[in-house]
Design goal:
Layout: H1 2-19, H2 24-27, H3 37-45, E1 54-59, E2 64-70, E3 76-83, E4 86-87, E5 105-109, E6 114-115, E7 123-125, H4 131-135, E8 144-146, E9 155-156, H5 159-174, E10 180-185, H6 191-196, H7 203-219, E11 225-228, E12 231-234, H8 257-278, H9 292-307, H10 354-359, H11 363-370, H12 412-426
Parallel strand pairs: 1-10, 8-9
Antiparallel strand pairs: 1-2, 2-3, 4-9, 5-10, 6-7, 7-8, 11-12
């Protein structure tokens, strides 16, 4: 009889919990589900731990969400890729509350943005609006990555997918990472895709995002992101005592010569690939994109009237974008004369950051970075000399990425001048 009474008490307590917007299923620790063993083994094979830092990349057109984790050498590598179940709106950024656009840009997720009791199974807030969005008057709230496969401005996954994605973030926070970066793009920002969208009204915004995209492709490190003059700036340092103001003038910025030259060589290869893509037939037609703030306001008004129960069209209104001038092939970029800086590029909570990467560059690699790629060089990051982070003390030499081979040298006078300058800088 006493046992029956205890059972009745437990059952009544469970039903009481279910009445507080919970279900019996929610009592199970879904937010503590462990990653599948296949992923754990894959991480070990790539030199990652369960609690090493994490970052994510989203590609709308391809419908992909990628998970990247730091390896023992500090570089990031992709560990999982998921098909996005649903995202709403079109290609292009989010402008205003109610425009149904899923955001594009660089966002930061901290532990307080994780929601283990989401009505969409599990979720986390991506951090919209960020400093760039606020500086440009963009509005919206509660933009999430979540489960339930239903979206009105969010990136929605299946419950099974979001459980794994949530676990990646949770474990990284347990390992000491204080925040992680989400990079949301309209598409993979290859030369072919940029040429395909060269007349899109969002092209200037996408070119700005591409700089951050390129830095990650080049270094496999999340770029340092700041905002000034209402635009993103990447991997830059302000002079001591100055800071970045999202709506103010940009300070005099600098970055290490090694990174600058590697990026310029990367851009030279991109320019060649972009020129070739302009003359080639596109493999696919561009996807629909939002036609700026005016269309966003129309969609937001449609959303309000629809929510009030008014009779509106089944699909949101749309504007036919006015074609912009066709982009011409960019001229080869020339590295500006900027002073080197030795300040850290690390983000909080992430070991083996860009400062260590700069310290690991040898004069020989600097000389390789200063050379020009051959005219028919393919668009590949593998041929670009990239600063290599210092490995951890426990790492074996085999785990460190090999330095790329040097490219053929240009005129001797230019090489000598660059080499002398870099050897003076790095003590070579």
């Amino acid at each position: 009889m006493k046992r029956l009474g205890k059972y009745a008490l437990f059952l009544s307590a469970a039903l009481a919990l279910a009445g507080c917007n919970e279900t019996l299923e929610d009592i199970s620790p879904k937010a503590e589900r462990q990653l599948p063993e296949r992923i754990v083994q894959s991480m070990k094979a790539k030199g990652m731990s369960k609690t090493s830092p994490v970052m994510m990349r989203i590609f709308k057109e391809e419908g992909k969400l990628e998970i990247w984790k730091a390896k023992q050498n500090g570089r990031y590598d992709v560990i999982a890729s998921y098909d996005i179940c649903k995202w709403s709106g079109k290609l292009g950024p989010k402008f205003t509350e109610g425009d149904r656009q899923a955001p594009e840009g660089f966002y930061t997720v901290r532990p307080g943005q994780m929601n283990p009791k989401s009505q969409y199974y599990l979720s986390f807030n991506i951090g919209f609006p960020n400093a760039y969005d606020r500086a440009n008057g963009r509005t919206g709230q509660h933009l999430m990555v979540h489960g339930a496969c239903s979206s009105a401005g969010c990136y929605s996954m299946t419950d099974e997918q979001v459980a794994e994605i949530y676990a990646f973030a949770r474990d990284a926070f347990k390992g000491g990472q204080r925040d992680f970066q989400i990079q949301a793009f309209p598409f993979r920002m290859t030369a072919e895709n940029m040429a395909r969208y060269r007349t899109d009204p969002n092209y200037a915004f996408w070119k700005m995002l591409k700089e951050g995209y390129d830095y990650f492709e080049l270094t496999k490190l999340p770029p340092k992101v700041d905002v000034c003059e209402k635009r993103y700036v990447f991997n830059r340092e302000a002079p001591e005592g100055q800071s970045f103001s999202p709506t103010g003038a940009c300070p005099q910025m600098s970055q290490p010569d090694s990174l600058m030259m590697a990026y310029q060589q990367y851009q030279t290869q991109y320019d060649r690939a972009f020129s070739a893509a302009l003359g080639a037939r596109a493999k696919s037609t561009p996807a629909p994109s939002i036609a700026g703030h005016k269309e966003a306001l129309l969609v937001a008004d449609w959303s309000k009237r629809r929510a009030r129960g008014e009779r509106v069209s089944r699909e949101p209104p749309s504007l036919n974008p006015t074609p912009t001038a066709i982009a011409t092939a960019p001229k080869p970029t020339v590295a500006p004369a900027a002073p080197a800086t030795t300040t850290a590029y690390t983000t909080d909570g992430q070991p083996n950051g860009l400062q260590n990467a700069m310290q690991a560059v040898t004069p020989d690699r600097q000389e390789a970075a200063a050379t020009s790629a051959p005219a028919d060089a393919p668009m590949s990051t593998g041929s670009v000399p990239v600063p290599t982070p210092n490995p951890s003390a426990s790492e074996t030499p085999a785990a460190v990425a090999e330095a790329p081979a040097a490219q053929p040298k240009p005129a001797e006078s230019r090489t000598s001048a660059v080499t002398r300058r870099l050897r003076n800088l790095f003590g070579g």
